[in-house]
Design brief:
Elements (H helix, E strand, L loop, with lengths): L3 E5 L3 E4 L4 H12 L4 E4 L10 H14 L7 E7 L6 H9 L3 E6 L19 H10 L3 E3 L13 H16 L5 E3 L5 H9 L4 E5 L1 H5 L2 H5 L16 H11 L6 E3 L8 H4 L14 H11 L6 H13 L7 E6 L7 E2 L6 E2 L9 E7 L2
Parallel strand pairs: 2-3, 3-4, 4-5, 5-6, 6-7, 7-8, 8-9
Antiparallel strand pairs: 1-10, 10-13, 11-12
Helix pairs in contact: 3-4
The structure holds N-carbamoyl-L-aspartate and zinc ion (2 copies).
Length: 349
């Protein structure tokens, strides 16, 4: 039995750090293990321009505790007013690594997202030219589409037409939750990748709904049936370079989750690597964890892999149940099992 696993230091290719006091509270949870993260721009107001992304990056670095190493990889929030030139300049300077598409109304803080795709065509064409990837929250928002079908319908009615229209555009389907999404990525030519979250590998919709509604398992896209969870586990553990880790760790204070209308997001930064090691071992694929968490993402983003290492050891450990913040506690994702692994050490170099 493997007792110890050394992998390159991982990255998180989809992360919510928020701002202010919350940023300060949650950033160490990520920086402890991860060298870099693609930082989502859905602040209020959103991070739309290169200047806003630069200022947000400065705030993140200022919130980083002394002695921790972490590189925020910035993204821009695509709006119908986004200026292609501003995007190109922010990319050329090295500041911005992706642009994020939120269909308006699809998820937390997505009100400024895209309604009319013809309005963003010039930006997308420019991104295709310069090789800047588009990250997509892939769900349609029409009231007549069932919430469990919104990802599959997005692929057919938005993503596939968009990719046929602008084939050179590099796209990352964020936080995929369905076998349809995994199949779509597998069948696509180069230039399409997908992030998979920790929680969608750990739970399915039964965990969310059976025996009582569990608000800390509610996220978007909502967890689907067990067969989809299995399809995600198969994709993540396959070693296929188009699938990589994006935790979508999304902190909300308990008061905003444990209420009559709880908001969407699971906070997984703290225990992600332990949960992943457990899941990969269940799938007899511990040897594929490094590819998923540390190699495939940099390859897609055309960035070097990290020099540092992360050491996992077979031992259970207690992770905190909650992270305290000045705004209130944030509950750490409970995978429903005790991970058989823990992170023993991390080296930056
Ligand atoms: N995943 C979520 O359920 N929530 C995210 C937004 C997102 O990634 O869609 C958040 O910002 O809280
Ligand atoms: Zn999303
Ligand atoms: Zn997210």
């Amino acid at each position: 039995m493997t007792e110890r696993l050394v992998i390159r230091r991982p990255d998180d290719w989809h992360l919510h750090l928020r701002d202010g006091a919350m940023l300060k509270a949650v950033l160490p949870e990520t920086a402890r293990h991860f060298a870099r993260a693609i930082v989502m721009p859905n602040l209020v107001p959103p991070v739309v321009t290169g200047a806003e992304a630069g200022a947000y990056r400065d705030r993140i670095l200022a919130a980083l505790p002394d002695g921790m190493t972490f590189e925020p990889l910035m993204t821009l929030y695509l709006t119908e007013e986004t200026d292609p030139e501003d995007v190109a300049v922010a990319h050329a300077s090295g500041l911005v690594k992706a642009v994020k598409l939120y269909p308006a109304g699809a998820t937390t803080n997505s009100a400024s997202g895209v309604r009319d795709f013809t309005k963003v065509r010039p930006v997308l064409e420019r991104m295709a030219e310069i090789g800047l990837p588009l990250c997509t929250h892939g769900e349609v928002t029409s009231a007549d589409v069932d919430i469990f079908d919104r990802e599959a319908v997005f692929i057919d009615t938005v993503l596939d037409p968009l990719r046929r229209d602008i084939p050179e555009l590099r796209v990352i389907m964020e936080h995929i939750t369905t076998s349809q999404a995994a199949d779509y990525v597998r069948e696509a030519p180069a230039g399409l990748g997908a992030t998979i979250t920790t929680h969608h590998l750990a739970i399915n919709r039964n965990h969310l709904l059976v025996g009582g509604i569990r608000p800390h398992y509610y996220c978007l896209p909502v967890a689907k049936r067990a067969s989809h969870q299995q399809a995600l586990r198969k994709a993540a553990t396959s070693g296929d370079p188009r699938f990589f880790l994006g935790t979508d760790s999304a902190p909300h204070v308990d008061a905003a989750k444990e209420t009559g209308c709880g908001c969407a997001g699971c906070f997984t930064a703290t225990n992600t690597m332990a949960i992943l090691a457990h899941v990969f071992e269940e799938e007899s694929a511990l040897d594929k964890l490094e590819a998923f968490a540390a190699l495939n993402g940099p390859a897609f983003y055309r960035l070097p892999v990290n020099n540092g290492t992360l050491v996992l050891e077979r031992r259970t450990t207690e992770y905190p149940v909650k992270i305290e913040t000045p705004d209130g506690p944030v509950t750490v994702f409970d995978p429903g099992f005790t991970p058989a692994w823990h992170v023993a050490s991390v080296s930056a170099e």
